Amino acid sequence: MNGVKVYLQFLKDTVGIEYMKGTGDIDNEEKESLQELRKEVERCKRCPLFRTRTHIVFGEGNEDAEIMFVGEAPGREEDLSGKPFIGRAGKLMDGIFEKIGLRRKDIYIANCIKCRPPENRNPKPEELLMCLPYLEKQVEIIKPKIIICLGKFAAQQLTGSALPISVLRGRTMKYREVTAIPTFHPAYLLRNPHAADSFKEDLIKAMKMV
Length: 210
Ligand code: URA
Prior knowledge:
This protein is an alpha/beta fold. The protein contains nine helices and six strands.
């Protein structure tokens, strides 16, 4: 049994919760494409967030990207459009991309969670866990050289560390064989503009590595 199955069994045995399985089960075939995976996520009912989503936000960009960005979860605008980082935080990130010569068409952007948590609350541990296999599969298919982890949830989810982003930021870490660079979430930069220089520095470091 893999980790997700053990957790599902645990929930069923201890609190009687049985998450919807079936349509959301992960297809373990090696050669699965992003398009096929997207279709699975569209049918996903692995956690209750499927009830409140307008669209899944699967991720988008260059499927051969060397640099992959991983955010937290869709916000309102992303839920309405199905596209990642198109709200205020995404626009701020686009502005920084432009300054350093990074283009969205060269990178891939995904999130830890594919459905919007209501009222933009933080993702719950069980939601992160249920959605993790989709992110893992995306990384397996895209095979990036570097993953930029945007904020605490992506950094902790991918590096396995429980340390806060203020501590992880500036380190070069690993997600399996892939270099993982934890940095601030663009929404944090909206509230803390002084952190934009560190964010920029992290992106430039990644660009130099590929
Ligand atoms: N914040 C995220 O983490 N992801 C998005 O797609 C939008 C906002």
